[in-house]
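hiii, so i know i said id send this last week but things got crazy w the move. better late than never?? heres the sequnce for the chain we talked about at the cafe, plus the structure i predicted for it. fair warning i was half asleep when i ran it
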Amino acid sequence: MLSSLHVRNYVLIDSLDISFPGGLIIITGQTGAGKSILLGALSLVLGSKTDASVIGPKGDSCVVEAEFKVDGDNSLRALVEGGELDWDGGNLVIRRTLSRTGRSRCFVNDEPVTVGFLGELSARLLDIHSQHQTLLLSRSSFQMEALDRRAGNGELLERCSSLWNTLSDDRKRLEEVSSTLAAMQAQRDYDEAVFRQLSDAKLEEGELETLENEQKVLSNAEDIKETLWAAQELLSPSGEGRSVVSSLKEAGRLLEKVSSWVGAAGELSERISSSRIEIDDIVSSLEEANAAVEVSPQRLAEVEERISMLYSLMKRHGCSGIGELIAVRDALDGKLHDSSRVEEERDALVNEISRLEKEHSAICDRLHEKRISFAGILASETGESLKFLELEKSVFRVDVTPAPAGPSGADQVTFFFSASGKAPVELSKCASGGELSRIMLSLKAMMARYSAMPTLFFDEIDTGVSGSAADRMGSMICSMGETMQVFAITHLPQVAAKGSAHYLVEKDLSGGDAVTSIRPVSGEDRVMEIARMLSGASITPAAVENARSLMAVRP
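okay and structure toks below
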């Protein structure tokens, strides 16, 4: 239950610190006093969307803090501890701050949390019924929620929603994979042909340069051989001429002969000997080079054909070298393998979607069975509540019909109503404002009872109701307060008189600026507030006496 609320600089609330008991808590005040502001502050701390316009004039930020006592709720404890927060025996202090920059910060037991987590947590702490929420009655989603609450379908719905979300994600992924695969397959034949061509080419880095050098040699082989031969002939004639090596050998011998008389001759002889050895090696190299040069028109044709093929491939693929061609080949190889992997992913997705569809269908069937089973029960219980609320001839019916599968199953739930006892029609087409208020109260009472909601907040749920019907609404709300904490903002004295605690919202204009506050009233102050609600600004003795009578019959 909500045990206390602390507000700083929120709209017209300068500073507010107030505690609340259990049971039925009545909140009243004149129109414009700020009851909606109080509800807005509570909504803010529970995670609702807001903006900097709610910050009051006394600073650049506002702070709202609410303390709840919820020990014994294991599912709520699992949520809190799952968020790595301290359970603290079921004492939850929720604080939210908002700055003029629009930045919002949320805390649970002094630990920072996201707004999303705060919304999930608060949905299990307090249910706020706003003034215009009776409009929800015409929505199929709310009608289904009411039936599911009565049928206790919470776990089934969580599983159904989880399966549907996974199924939707997988279907979306299958569309993406199928689209990718279709594009790949449209290109696959071409890619395979290109890959085979590049693969069959047996490309090697640096091959083109080697081939071009060989092509130059082969194209000039005869001239090269003639030139090498001529150089060799100059150094070592093949005919009767004397070779350079022989001449050097003879010159060295002669110099050696006179070396004992001429000192330099010995050194010159050694130099000639070194030159002779070098020239002899050159001649051998010329012979080898000449022998290595092959005059082969056939090989030249092969080399030129290979070079032409490589240049053709480079031009076709926009490459400037063999290395880039090799990169194209390897990329195509990876692309073809990727296609195989995409096919495997597609097949796996098809199988998984089939499995999920069967599981989701089975959950939908179970939900359908329970909804059919509890539709009559919900209709009967709601009908009894409406008769208690002085709609004695009313007829309330709940229909469950097939609908396209979705996160909440494969059903559509529709409420039918007749206030006169005649054939009921769809609720949204027939009920008046007062009738809708009583139907909503009946459903909210049921939903709170079967969802174990610790706190329920009614904001003028009694709109459009008066007289004895209002008194009975007050009695129903009061009976709800016996098992849970219920807040009721009301303008009806018949309802206000039923509460176990009563708080008055007031607006003070004495300081120049309007300031909203809230305080508990009891005893004579409470009698006078109910008298004001009965008679207006001028409280008459009759209104006071009537207020005492209402208080006297308070449950």
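btw The first strand starts at residue 2 and ends at 10. thought thatd interest u
miss u guys!!
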